[in-house]
UniProtKB/TrEMBL annotation:
<dbReference type="GO" id="GO:0005524">
    <property type="term" value="F:ATP binding"/>
</dbReference>
<keyword id="KW-0812">Transmembrane</keyword>
<feature type="transmembrane region" description="Helical">
    <location>
        <begin position="53"/>
        <end position="72"/>
    </location>
</feature>
<protein>
    <recommendedName>
        <fullName>DUF3099 domain-containing protein</fullName>
    </recommendedName>
</protein>
<dbReference type="GO" id="GO:0005886">
    <property type="term" value="C:plasma membrane"/>
</dbReference>
<feature type="region of interest" description="Disordered">
    <location>
        <begin position="103"/>
        <end position="168"/>
    </location>
</feature>
<dbReference type="InterPro" id="IPR036640">
    <property type="entry name" value="ABC1_TM_sf"/>
</dbReference>
<feature type="transmembrane region" description="Helical">
    <location>
        <begin position="78"/>
        <end position="99"/>
    </location>
</feature>
<feature type="region of interest" description="Disordered">
    <location>
        <begin position="1"/>
        <end position="23"/>
    </location>
</feature>
<dbReference type="Pfam" id="PF11298">
    <property type="entry name" value="DUF3099"/>
</dbReference>
<feature type="compositionally biased region" description="Basic and acidic residues">
    <location>
        <begin position="158"/>
        <end position="168"/>
    </location>
</feature>
<keyword id="KW-1133">Transmembrane helix</keyword>
<dbReference type="InterPro" id="IPR021449">
    <property type="entry name" value="DUF3099"/>
</dbReference>
<keyword id="KW-0472">Membrane</keyword>
Length: 168
């Protein structure tokens, strides 16, 4: 009986298979990563996050509609079915609004303070600076240039009208 020695190709395939299995397990069982920097998410990461939220909200709508139908058909609880249905109605709109979100959100680690006295002082300084500036010169508004056509000689206002008597 002849024993088969594993060849290098078999060993390489085995190692690749184990590595792929490890990577797959790592994706499924990820631990949350601690934030150690003040860096914001990249635009690509923000877009992926918005896409995930959009897909989740769109996917949730179909089971809610099915649940509303089942509640009504099996138990006859039309009021509960109506509530579930009404909750599912705005989900597509909310998903679109969240997916189209722009800009970055404020860092929650920073303290948000509003100083009304400082804001009033700043606005007063702006008003005083504007009051000291001379007003911009007013431009004379000229309407569009009117080009008069030659008057029709048949009209009574025409100076060469034979019906008009200009003699004293």
């Amino acid at each position: 009986m002849e024993q088969h020695d594993p060849s290098d190709d078999d060993i390489a395939e085995s190692i690749e298979g184990q590595a792929e299995e490890t990577r797959r397990r790592a994706r499924v069982f990820r631990r949350p990563v601690e934030l150690i920097t003040d860096a914001e998410l990249s635009p690509h990461q923000r877009r992926l996050k918005r896409e995930r939220i959009y897909v989740i909200l769109q996917i949730i709508r179909v089971p809610l509609l099915l649940l509303a139908m089942l509640v009504w058909a099996l138990w006859g609880l039309w009021w509960l079915a109506a509530i579930i249905f009404v909750v599912s109605i705005p989900l597509p709109g909310v998903a679109v609004v969240l997916a189209n979100e722009k800009g970055t959100k404020r860092d929650h680690r920073q303290q948000s303070t509003y100083k009304p006295a400082a804001a009033r002082m700043h606005h007063n300084q702006l008003r005083q600076a504007q009051a000291l500036e001379p007003p911009p010169p007013k431009e004379v508004e000229q309407g569009p240039e009117v080009i008069d056509a030659d008057p029709d000689p048949a009209t009574p206002d025409h100076p060469t009208d034979p019906r008009k008597d200009d003699t004293p």
